[in-house]
Amino acid sequence: MQQSLLQEIYELVKSLTKSEKRYFKLYTQFQQGDKSYLKLFDIIDKIKIYNEGIINQQFLLKNKATNFPAVKKYLFAQIIASIKSYGAYKDLDSDHTNMIETYKVLHYKGLYGQSEKLLKKIKQVTWDDDAFTRHFSVLLMEYHKEVFNPNDASPVNVVRILKERRNVLDIMDNYLRVGETFTLMRLHLRKKLYCRNKKDKDELTKIATPVLKSSENDMLSRTALGMRNLTLCDYYMATGQPKKAFETSKIYLELRKNAGGNDKLDLQTLNEYLQHIILSVRSGYFEGFEDNMLYYKTLLDTIRNKEKYFIGYEKWYNCVLIYYNRTGQFEQGASFVEKENKDGLVEDNFSMKAKITLWYFWAYNLYARQQYKKSLQYIQRIMNQANTELDEYSYAKLLLMFIHYDLKNYELLEYQVRSAQRFLEKQERLYQSEILMFDFFKKFNSADSKSRQLQKISFLQQQVNSLFKKPTERGIIFYFDIIAWLESQVNDKSFAGAVLKKHEAGI
């Protein structure tokens, strides 16, 4: 259903920061003529919940002779104009646009000396920033300047520009091809992060083949090289080569850190740090993690665009929580969540996928701290979602099974085992270790003596340890540390303590 203009204005006003509202007032105070649109702004700003009838009523009581539709349009236009003037939304592309517009003004006014100097600067800046679409448009302007030169075009310059244009198009095509492979891989891995069988690996390899057959020298730009690196890391992780993935990402990040020159902070730089952090929590290799985590957050806090900020923030937030979980620092993870979520609204700005990820790993954290009732509440949130294809949905079912086992809810456990196994078989997502767990829980008999139960768990531990020699079986550790759980059962220790001990031992 299409929103009314008034509702769009309401959402726009509510999205403004305090400083943006102050700037709007300053921006409009020098306007001449009717200021009734400012009264409408104040009414909307004060209302907590959108109600078109109340807004209309309050405004028309004080402005009976005003053309209300015209006032709404004008207010919307003025808010947009003030946001543009304030500039908080601007990014690297906006800087390039501003320079290009300045060049056009200088050229239009006949200041050819100044405009030519600026054009050379823009050309260099867009090249250094890998802003190739902008760089190509600058080459077009340079081409027109030379071809339509009233003093006759220099053939040498025109030929040079034509060659440069072709080179830039080749660079853009190169990036496009690598980017397509990366995107297709990410779409494929969106539902399950790890290959669980030969079929999964073959499907992923087929998608990744163009990049797997390429070399660094085939990449014609930093952006293409970065995209190739991300694609390789995703492939190595999904196919059970976490150390190779981590080392590949680490080497590339070190090269990026030492790049120097005109290497400005942009979304790709942020993304490269973020991807390395994500790779660390997925692979379980945490060398330099806390420093990278803090540095990334410092970079992220410089982002002025709210939407782009939260895209990065939600991933950073979940990565930090997963890090504390994987290293057995569950209490520190809880403190982190409490600190970041002081007002209880942190996840409101998250995408649904990020929310589901958060709910699962928070449920896992609560489980490790033996807060089973709260853990069940977050699992239920996941179960209430329609998207059953995400890995988190599958592992929520498994976590539910472990909770009922720990609570000795053996009657419920039997049902949960059957439900989870049917679901995973239907989704073709079963790890062999999960099949072993299902068999263990199905055959569990609470009437067995303690020594008999311990004997069964010890045998299960041997089977799982043997299975984990296969790299493709280890993906489950990211979601649930089954090795630590078995260790805790065998030695009658807490699960949280077993995860911490395993991490400290470097296992």
Q: What features would you describe in this structure?
A:
The protein is mostly helical and 507 residues long. Among the domains are: 82 residues, no CATH class; 86 residues. It has 24 helices and no strands. The radius of gyration is 29 Å and the shape is flat. About 1% of the residues have low confidence.
Separate helix tally: 24
Question: What's the Cα radius of gyration?
Answer: 29 Å
Mean pLDDT figure: 86
Number of strands: 0
Please give the share of residues in helix. Answer: over 70%
Largest sheet: none
Helix and strand content put the structural class at mainly alpha
- Principal-axes geometry comes out as flat
The ordered H/E elements are: HHHHHHHHHHHHHHHHHHHHHHHH
The parts where pLDDT drops under 50 for at least 5 residues are: 260-265
First CA to last CA: what distance?
54 Å
Strand content: under 5%
